[in-house]
Each structure stands twice: as C-alpha cells, then as structure tokens.
Amino acid sequence: MAHPSFDGLQVLVLESRRSREMASLVTTYGGQPVTAPSMRELPLESNHEAVAFADDLVAGRFDLVILLTGVGTRFLLGVVEHVRGSRQPFVDALKKVPVAARGPKPVAVLRELGIDPWVVAPEPNTWRELLAVLDAKKDDLPLRGARVAVQEYGSSNPDLLAGLEALGAAITRVPVYQWALPDDLGPLQAAVESLAAGSLDVALFTTATQVTHLLEVAGRMERAGAVQENLKRMVVASIGPTTSEELRARGITVDMEPSHPKMGFLVREAAERARDLLAPKRA
C-alpha cells in the first residue's frame, strides 16, 4: 500500500495547543504546513458559576452532571481547589452522582479521580450522541424534572441545552473557560492573506472555534469574501460533525471527515485523499 502523501501541497494548520505536533504530522505525510494558531483558552475573570456549582454539588443538589471536555473538567477542579482550599469534597460529591461524559478526554480525567462515568457518548462524541445515550438510559434516570449540570466549553451549545430541556431536565450551565483569539495575531493574519491570495491547497479544522476565529480575523482585514471564495478551491477537512456544522453554517463546503475524530486520523486520511479531492476543484 502506498504511503499517504500530500505530495508537497500547502496545508493550513489552525490548531493551537498541538500545533507543532500537527505540523510535524503534515510534514511526515509530505505536506508543507502553514501554521496559524487561531485560539487560546482564557479562564473567565470571575468563576462564580463554577464555584456555585461545586458548592451545590457538595450539598447534593444535582441528579446528573455532564462533562463536555477534559480541559474544562481539569480547569473546574483547579478553580474549586483554589477557591475552596481543597477539591476533595467536590470529588467525593462527584462520585455520588451519575456523570455523563461527551467523549474520551473527560473520561480520562474522571478515571484519574477514581470515577467511572455513568454513560459516555459514542463516537463521534457530539451533542447528538450524548442526548441519544441519555435518552436510552431514561429508565435508569428519567430526565423529566432532573437537576442537570452541564460543564460548558468555550461557548454554550444551544442544541444540547434545548435537547435536554425537551427531555424535561432542569439545566444549570457551568461555564469554566472561554476561547479568545491568540495574543499574537500575526500568523493568523498571514494565513488570511495566503487564503485570500489562493496560495493554499488544504485546510485542516479541528474545532468549530477555529472557523469562527479565522473568519472573524478575515472580516477585520476585509478579506472574508476572498477567503470563503478560495476555500471552495481547496480541500476542506473537518475533524467531525460539530466542526462540519459550523463550516456549513458559514457557507463552506466540507470535503471530508476522518474515519475517527482524531488529529492523527485527520492528517493521515487528508494526505490519502487530498490530491483526488483537489483535482476537480482545480480542473
């Protein structure tokens, strides 16, 4: 079997925390990475909701806790420990309530704490799978009237919240961090100029926020129209349904998703398919 290869294509990498790792993968598969970190995790200046949630959990005021991200779960633990001096009462309380995890990253944090999640959303780990698995377990835990805490990430997911409310749950949002543009906008601005000029071949998106921030910066630079137009001539690869939804909502066609919503699968399978997907766009 031939080794997957971008065969020298210019590949836009918008990843931030794992940008070096992702760029290295692109290089391994014969691509030329154009790295433009597009986001940073910004703790909320005031974490009143997170602390109030922790206190209410310790007091036994929730029937279900939903954890959406590993980073958010770790940050929540840090907030509790910083404000209350110890996280142990919170951890002990978390062990007594059913916990639903959206995917493997919050599961990993839970297992470090000695907690087995009650349910885990199957791949591709979106809000749809999470709602489906909760609905399937309604005989064990009816959501009608249940007090449900939702650890949010970056911004609220209105579809998830609406779905939980439709099942009768009483929702408490727990925002613990938000996304901001990077401190250094230079690489992202340079990527916008390259996109507007039509000099890139492949774009790899690993979160919906990357889409939002790319187009926000393009709009500030008065390049949004050119960026969206030239993305039509590129291969747009999305890590999974949530990111794809945001791309399509912005009028950007998604050419491929990997077989598993993981960074390694995304890069490898994009390398396998990029030339074939690009050919008709450049004909």
How would you explain this protein's 3D organization?
With 283 residues, this protein is of the alpha/beta class. It folds into two domains: 10-39 and 182-282, Rossmann fold; 43-179, Rossmann fold. It is 47% helix and 16% strand. The chain has twelve helices and eleven strands. The chain has helices at residues 19-28, 48-58, 70-84, 88-94, 104-112, 127-136, 158-166, 186-197, 208-220, 224-231, 241-249, 263-282, and strands at 10-13, 32-35, 40-43, 64-67, 99-101, 119-120, 147-152, 170-175, 177-180, 202-205, 235-238. A five-stranded parallel sheet has the order 6-5-4-7-8, sandwiched between helices. Strand 1, helix 1 (19-28) and strand 2 form a beta-alpha-beta unit. It is elongated. The model has no long low-confidence stretch (mean pLDDT 94).
